[in-house]
């Protein structure tokens, strides 16, 4: 069985485009490389738009209220409670990150800080909720702090 043969085709004028010529007969391609136009564009990803912040809250609600790696360890949060917690987590993380933002950054570091704060606060929220749920399930209540008028320092009583 013989291999098919491919005939060599010489290049044509269509294969090698010629650079455009300007009205003075000069080569435009060469001119454009000699004096490049600089674009002074600014790119910033901080602060996020309200639409982005709303999407973060929606995702947090899903994470807190649906089965996930987090819920396997700490349990799921009811939808209404998750919505309140998600709004609070996002708002606190946004405020924290906005307080650290500088006018001269492009926002990448601040966005990373915002993201870390959301993660940290989400974990703190589910841990605190799991701890309060476990004390309620055991029938014990957390220590009660009571103050009396004849003592200077509050006392802690187990109930």
Distance between the termini: 95 Å
Q: Which strand order spans the largest sheet, edge to edge or round the barrel?
A: 1-2
The succession of helices and strands, N to C, reads HHHHHEE
Largest sheet: 2 strands, antiparallel
Q: How many individual helices?
A: 5
Index terms:
2 strands, elongated, 51% helix, mainly alpha, 159 residues, disordered C terminus, two-stranded antiparallel sheet, single chain
What does it look like?
The chain is mainly alpha-helical. 51% of the residues lie in helices and 4% in strands. The protein has helices at 28-34, 50-65, 69-74, 79-100, 108-137; strands at residues 144-146, 155-157. The protein has a two-stranded antiparallel sheet. A hairpin with an 8-residue loop joins strand 1 and strand 2. The protein is elongated, with a radius of gyration of 32 Å. It starts with 27 loop residues before the first helix and ends with a strand.
List the helices and strands and how they pair.
Layout: H1 28-34, H2 50-65, H3 69-74, H4 79-100, H5 108-137, E1 144-146, E2 155-157
Antiparallel strand pairs: 1-2
């Amino acid at each position: 069985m013989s291999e098919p043969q491919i005939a060599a085709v010489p290049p044509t004028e269509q294969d090698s485009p010629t650079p455009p010529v300007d009205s003075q007969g000069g080569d435009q391609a060469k001119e454009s490389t000699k004096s490049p136009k600089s674009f002074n564009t600014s790119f910033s990803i901080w602060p996020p738009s309200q639409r982005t912040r709303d999407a973060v809250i929606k995702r947090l609600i899903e994470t807190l209220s649906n089965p996930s790696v987090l819920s396997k360890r700490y349990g799921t949060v009811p939808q209404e409670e998750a919505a309140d917690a998600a709004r609070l987590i996002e708002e606190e993380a946004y405020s924290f990150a906005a307080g650290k933002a500088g006018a001269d950054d492009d926002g990448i570091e601040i966005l990373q800080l915002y993201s870390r704060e959301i993660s940290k606060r989400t974990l703190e929220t589910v841990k605190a909720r799991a701890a309060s749920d476990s004390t309620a399930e055991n029938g014990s209540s957390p220590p009660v702090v009571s103050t009396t008028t004849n003592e200077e320092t509050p006392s802690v009583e187990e109930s």
